[in-house]
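[Q] Does anyone have a clean C-alpha cell version of this?
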Amino acid sequence: MKEQLQALEQEALSKVEEASTIKELQDVRVAYLGKKGPITEVLRGMGKLSPEERPIIGELANTVRANIANAMEEKKDAMERAELEKQLAEEQIDVTLPGRPVAVGGPHLLTSIVEEIEDLFIGLGFEVREGPEVETDYYNFEALNLPKGHPARDMQDSFYITEDLLMRTHTSPVQARTMNAIQGARPVKMICPGKVYRRDTDDATHSHQFTQIEGLYVDKNVRMSDLKGVLDRFAKHMFGEDREIRLRPSFFPFTEPSVEMDISCKVCNGEGCSVCKKTGWIEILGAGMVHPRVLEMAGYDPNEYSGFAFGMGPERIAMLKYGVDDIRHFYTNDVRFLKQYHQA
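[A] Here you go.
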C-alpha cells in the first residue's frame, strides 16, 4: 500500500506539471483528491492492515495529499501570474498621453430664461408656485371668469381628456388654486412658471406645447401704476436699461381693465425696422387688473382687495432677447443650437 501511494503521488505530480489551464488543474484535483479518487480508495483498505502499519500508512497518505495540493497551488499561482503579465502587456496604458476632453452640458436656453425671470421676481417679493398640468375645467376656465359657452374659450383651443379634464392651456389655474386655498385670508404675491398645451399647428412662432410664466399680486390698494412699475422693471432687466414700455388697451376675461405691453425695439431703438414692422414697438406680454368676479370666486372681497396679473411666454422672450427666428429650435435638440447658449 505504501508503494501504491507513492506511485499515485508521482502520477498526480506529473499530471499537475502537464496541466496548461486552471480548468485542467481543477480536473487533476478532482481525479486524485476527490472522494472517489484513487487515494481515497487506498485509504478505505486500511482496515485490513495491522495496528502497527495503520499510523505509518495514514501519515504517508496525509503527506501525499499535502504534496499534491501544494504542487497544485504553486502551479495555479504561476498560471495566474502569467495571465496577469500577458494582460498587462496587451493592455498597456500610456500615462503620458493627454487626457480626452469631456463634453460638459449646460442649462437649456429656456431653462436659463425661466430661472432669470424667477430670480428677478423673487427679488421683488414674489413666491414661485406650481400646479398640475392636467387641470379641471373649473380651474382652467370657470374660476377665471370663463364659464361654459363663453366665446373667449375659443381663443384657447384645448386638449380635452374628459368633459371635465384637459391639459391646461395657461398657468393661470395655479393662481386660481392658490387664491382659492387662501380664501381671502391674506394677500398673495406669486409667479407660476410651467408647461401649457394648446391645439396649435407647429410653425416658426407656434407650438402645441410651450412654457408660460404668469404673475399675480392681490392686496389692498393695488393699482395699475404698481403693475406698470413691475413690468417696467422686468423689461429693463431682461432687455436693457434703455428699453421703454407702453401699455395698450386689450381684452382678457380674467382682468379688467386689460392691457398688452410693448417694449421699444432694441434693433432700431424705436425708429422702425423690419423686426418691429416699422412701428418701433414689439408686443411682449398681456396683463391687467384682476377682474372683481375672479376675486369674488376665490374668496376675496373685491371692495376691499384689488390686484394685477400678467402672463408671458419665455420662448418669445428668448427669441427677442437672443434673435432666435424659429420656436422649433428650442425643441429639436440640435446640439449646434443649444451649445451657443451654455453661458446664457
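[Q] Thanks! Anything notable?
[A] The mean pLDDT is 86.
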